[in-house]
Amino acid sequence: MNANPLTDADLDRLEQLLEDDVFQEDSMRLDEIQAILCAIVSGPEPVLPSVWLPDVLGKGMENASHPVVAECMELLMRLNNDIAAALLADETVAPVLYPLDENGEEYDYAAWADSYVYGAGLAGDWFELAGKHAEDLSELLEPMFMLNGMLKEDVEKSGERWFAPAEEARLVADIEENLPVIIQTLYNFWRNKRSGGTVRHEEPKSGRNDPCPCGSGRKFKQCCGSPEKLN
């Protein structure tokens, strides 16, 4: 159990500190920081604070002894511990999200997913470290690539047909709703790898570009292997 968990007041204070002039508008937002820490905590190799703090606080790290920076660092370490404790206990982490409009009808899931992918890279090449389970990891990460637009970009660059707008919107909405589960699943993937476990499949695995075994005529990755099935 985390001995000193952050309160809502602590999180509000952290948001306030990140906007202080000492950071010269170079610090990350709280949503981006949370996403990076979720990836770091989940990953295959430890990432020291000396690696991720400069990315998170930017120019503020030039004044690490400044009271605001020091307080911010202390809160960030506690946030890191909170996330680690929650994922270890199989408690889903609720993503911090900022609205994209004044009405709060849409939220910036893309920034969260993009930051998670960035955080994953701080521990090295996840796919290389996944070894024989790299394809399984790729599937688990596809929802993140769906949210940040990378999956669509790659598909369109390859000349393949992308989802119709209504279908894309449905898939994205499903991923957004299930993002806490996706985060936990990625953590569990690496936890299982560290403990020497294996990734289990109840049925023979289909390749991403193989015809879907359901008989739809579509590629597996665009049917039963599509992003909404990967969490």
Describe the structure.
This protein has helices at 8-18, 30-42, 49-57, 67-88, 109-121, 126-130, 134-147, 150-157, 165-177, 179-194. It is an all-alpha fold and 231 residues long. It has one domain: Four Helix Bundle (Hemerythrin (Met), subunit A) (Up-down Bundle), CATH 1.20.120. The chain starts with 7 loop residues before the first helix and ends in a 37-residue tail after the last helix. It comes from Dechloromonas denitrificans. This is YecA family protein. Residues 196-231 are annotated as: Disordered.
Radius of gyration: 19 Å
Shape: globular
Q: Strand fraction band?
A: under 5%
User: Whole-Å distance between the termini?
Assistant: 27 Å
**Total domain modules:** 1
Q: Which fold name is given in CATH as the topology?
A: Four Helix Bundle (Hemerythrin (Met), subunit A)
Main sheet properties: none
Number of strands: 0
Write down the CATH class: Mainly Alpha
Count of DSSP H/I helices: 10
- pLDDT < 50 stretches: 199-208, 227-231
How much helix is in the residues? 40-55%
Q: Give the H and E element order.
A: HHHHHHHHHH
Mean pLDDT: 87
CATH architectural grouping? Up-down Bundle
The structural class is mainly alpha
Biased composition (Basic and acidic residues): 199-208
Protein name: YecA family protein
Region (Disordered): 196-231
InterPro entries: SEC_C_motif (IPR004027), YgfB-like (IPR011978), YgfB-like_sf (IPR036255)
